[in-house]
């Protein structure tokens, strides 16, 4: 999927959150959004994943504006996008069932009923449920293949986030949208998810990622986009954005300087 945001703006109750943002994500490319809290990163991701409609401008998927389509066709496009949020949100069931959830909701009801009947038959004949190969493949990517039958409630926070990532991967989406997926993780779990992102890129998935971790952005990005107060300040390779930024605001942010409104600070 080629995703393009073209002159996108978004506001709520007269408050402008994003202003005239243009950004594209190609298949097999990792684009990372950086910027301070409140810059509009999460809103941008919600627009890209078709959860919100832009106030102005257009979001295009392979050249098509999904919001110009009937609801069912737009839903079909949305289902080609896998989303991982900052906090893992798992169902009170097994790891495998959580990973398979994303695929189940994409199937027609007739297929869901047939799968349910097959699982019941498997449990009755073999005494244990079967696990789909694609579910196991997704768990393999996050290092949890052998944990497929564990209760999700028994997982650590890092393991739960890895299961969330596997759930987004299992339907083999064209685009992954990741909202600070490693912000609360230890270095080991962070490294595992970064490796999974690299593998997803290798399978030609596009990845749009928001992060506060500048080192992470340098490690895994093809391009970095700096967002400030709802405006896209600049976009470029990690080397250019971090080493030779073209805008002084980017340079200050990369250096770790505070970005603030002096009048607001004095007030």
UniProtKB/TrEMBL annotation:
<feature type="domain" description="ABC transporter">
    <location>
        <begin position="3"/>
        <end position="254"/>
    </location>
</feature>
<dbReference type="GO" id="GO:0005524">
    <property type="term" value="F:ATP binding"/>
</dbReference>
<dbReference type="GO" id="GO:0016020">
    <property type="term" value="C:membrane"/>
</dbReference>
<keyword id="KW-1003">Cell membrane</keyword>
<dbReference type="InterPro" id="IPR017871">
    <property type="entry name" value="ABC_transporter-like_CS"/>
</dbReference>
<keyword id="KW-0547">Nucleotide-binding</keyword>
<dbReference type="InterPro" id="IPR027417">
    <property type="entry name" value="P-loop_NTPase"/>
</dbReference>
<dbReference type="InterPro" id="IPR003439">
    <property type="entry name" value="ABC_transporter-like_ATP-bd"/>
</dbReference>
<protein>
    <submittedName>
        <fullName>Phosphate ABC transporter ATP-binding protein</fullName>
    </submittedName>
</protein>
<dbReference type="GO" id="GO:0016887">
    <property type="term" value="F:ATP hydrolysis activity"/>
</dbReference>
<dbReference type="GO" id="GO:0035435">
    <property type="term" value="P:phosphate ion transmembrane transport"/>
</dbReference>
<keyword id="KW-0813">Transport</keyword>
<dbReference type="Pfam" id="PF00005">
    <property type="entry name" value="ABC_tran"/>
</dbReference>
<dbReference type="InterPro" id="IPR005670">
    <property type="entry name" value="PstB-like"/>
</dbReference>
<keyword id="KW-0472">Membrane</keyword>
<keyword id="KW-0067">ATP-binding</keyword>
<dbReference type="GO" id="GO:0005315">
    <property type="term" value="F:phosphate transmembrane transporter activity"/>
</dbReference>
<dbReference type="InterPro" id="IPR003593">
    <property type="entry name" value="AAA+_ATPase"/>
</dbReference>
């Amino acid at each position: 999927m080629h995703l393009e945001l073209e002159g996108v703006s978004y506001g709520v109750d007269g408050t402008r959150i994003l202003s005239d943002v243009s950004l594209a994500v190609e298949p097999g490319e990792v684009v990372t959004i950086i910027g301070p809290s409140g810059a509009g990163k999460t809103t941008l991701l919600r627009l890209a994943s078709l959860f919100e409609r832009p106030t102005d401008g257009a979001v295009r998927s392979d050249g098509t504006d999904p919001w110009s389509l009937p609801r069912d066709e737009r839903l079909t496009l949305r289902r080609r996008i896998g989303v991982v949020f900052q906090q893992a949100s798992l169902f009170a069931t097994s790891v495998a069932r959580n990973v398979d959830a994303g695929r189940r909701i994409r199937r027609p009801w007739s297929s869901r009923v047939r799968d349910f009947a097959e699982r019941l038959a498997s449990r009755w004949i073999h005494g244990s449920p079967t696990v789909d190969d694609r579910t196991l493949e997704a768990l393999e990517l996050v290092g949890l293949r052998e944990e497929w039958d564990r209760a999700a409630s028994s997982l650590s926070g890092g393991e739960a986030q890895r299961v969330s990532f596997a759930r987004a991967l299992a339907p083999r989406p064209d685009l992954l949208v990741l909202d600070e997926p490693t912000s609360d993780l230890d270095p080991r779990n962070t490294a595992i998810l970064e490796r999974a992102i690299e593998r997803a890129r290798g399978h030609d998935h596009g990845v749009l990622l928001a992060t506060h971790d500048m080192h992470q952005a340098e490690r895994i990005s093809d391009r970095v986009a700096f967002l400030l107060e709802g405006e896209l300040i600049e976009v470029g390779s990690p080397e250019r954005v971090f080493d030779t930024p073209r805008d002084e605001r980017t340079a200050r942010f990369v250096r770790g300087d505070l970005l603030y409104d002096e009048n607001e600070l004095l007030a």
